[in-house]
Amino acid sequence: MLRILLVLFLGIGNLWAQNPTTDELINFWLEAERQVAEGDFDAYAASFHEEAILVNGMNKTSVPIQRALDGWKAGFVDTKNGKMSASVTFRFSDQSIGDSTAHFTGIFRYEWQNTGEKSQMVYIHLEALLTRSNGHWQMLMEYQKAMATTEEWEKLVAFEQSLIQGR
């Protein structure tokens, strides 16, 4: 009986491990990390739905994502040209995932350094709403809620682990 339960458990675990939606979402966040690190502005901009918005809880504003992207573009160009380095890392405390929509709550860490200057880092509470559009995932809303602390960051696990555990 124990052997049958073990086979069933391993079989179910294998089905979870092969969940294409979760794998696609893991790739979405890994790609965002790559795009920032490499200064790939075009790919980063394409990761947002054309109607996406950025909500900034720290200054109580909401803007179309294109306006936010316009403000971020110089940093991407400088990163691509080697004038600065940048990285972003995500950790999530909660996620709700469907076949064509997903909502994430967590924190991102953004670190940047201009050539010849000291490195800087911020932690920001994040909510993100994604939709599968034309066969790929795009962000509809990025809500940068508030500054986070290192302690809050350290309580969360890497997003790949939280997504896999949440299957």
Quick gist of this model?
By secondary structure, this protein is α+β, with helices and mostly antiparallel strands. It has helices at 2-17, 20-38, 41-46, 65-80, 150-154, 159-165, and strands spanning 48-56, 61-64, 84-97, 101-114, 120-133, 136-147. Helices cover 41% and strands 40% of the residues.
- The side-by-side strand order for the widest beta sheet comes to 2-1-6-5-4-3
- What Rg is obtained from the alpha carbons, in whole angstroms? 18 Å
- Helical/strand content category: alpha+beta
Given as residue ranges, the uncertain stretches (5+ residues, pLDDT < 50) are 1-17
| Portion in helices | 40-55%
Write the topology of this structure.
Elements: H1 2-17, H2 20-38, H3 41-46, E1 48-56, E2 61-64, H4 65-80, E3 84-97, E4 101-114, E5 120-133, E6 136-147, H5 150-154, H6 159-165
Parallel strand pairs: 1-6
Antiparallel strand pairs: 1-2, 3-4, 4-5, 5-6
